[in-house]
Amino acid sequence: MTGNAKVLEPHAVLEMYRQMLMIRRFDQRAVDEFHAGNIPGGVHAYIGQEAVAVGVCAALRRDDKIVGTHRGHGHTIAKGADIKLMMAELFGRSTGYCHGKGGSMHIADFSVGMLGANGIVGAGLPIATGAALAAKLEGSDRVAVAFFGDGASNEGAFHGSLNLASIWKLPAIYVCENNRWASGVPAAYALSVPDVAARAVAYDIPGVAVDGTDVLAVHEVAEQAVRRARAGGGPTLIECKTYRWRAHSEQRGNPSDPRPREEIDLGPQHDPIGSFAARLIDQAVATAATLQQIDQGVEAALAEAIVFAKASPLPRPEDALLDVFAP
Length: 327
Known about the structure:
Layout lengths: L9 H26 L14 H8 L7 E3 L5 H6 L4 H8 L33 H14 L6 E6 L6 H12 L4 E7 L2 E2 L2 E2 H4 L16 E5 L3 H16 L5 E6 L19 H4 L1 H4 L2 H11 L5 H24 L16
Parallel strand pairs: 1-2, 2-3, 3-7, 6-7
Antiparallel strand pairs: 4-5
Helix pairs in contact: 1-2, 1-11, 1-12, 2-8, 4-12, 5-6
């Protein structure tokens, strides 16, 4: 398929589409189940940002490491996690990834290189930096990716991580998902520069801004950063310009979104999945019937995950102190 420096096979492109659709449908269902009272705790929907997680993770190997954010379902799915175990965790069931104790913001699957989501803004950057340092000390060509938002680029953890990664030439990739708003604060107000990518100059590393609604564009810059990191060239900062469709977090009762209506409406106008589907059909990579089959498969898998989650037992009170300390 055109539009990428590396020509991708049709099956790889269609897998990107399937993953993006899975993320979208997963979070749409998570939002519905939350408002129905079936999911405790918080839910931060990734709807609208699917192209970022999929574009980046498609450039990674299974043994590469990533760290997500409080809005982390997309990262977790794109890295290959089991949606049944994810959904069970959201429902607070003992069959979930964290046995029902972590919830939406703390899902991890070390077997696929997902070191965990993180509810603290910016806290994933030092973790990914540590994973990159471990890879270098072990003589491995693994890379580590930190996903974070525009608000996190104002945290000290961001600056300290990029500085260390630069001076030690760590195989780290820092992916800023600039969705224009940090909770209810516009990035245009909170950032000292128009582009987060410009901050790479201070650490003498490449900084690249890309359309975060174009999965192939994201994949191209991610592949370049991965190749550089594996070859010992050090870290890269990638800023993906994207849009958050939902409020910062889901709220029961009287949901509120401090963004102006015109800002909220921008998301659906830049739909990464709709535009990608049109592109696939236009370039004869897929037919509408093929995409419909993918949609049906995604819906079937999600229905199975919901059944699994609802049928799973709640954690036992006597297990409250299990998994608190490492052996």
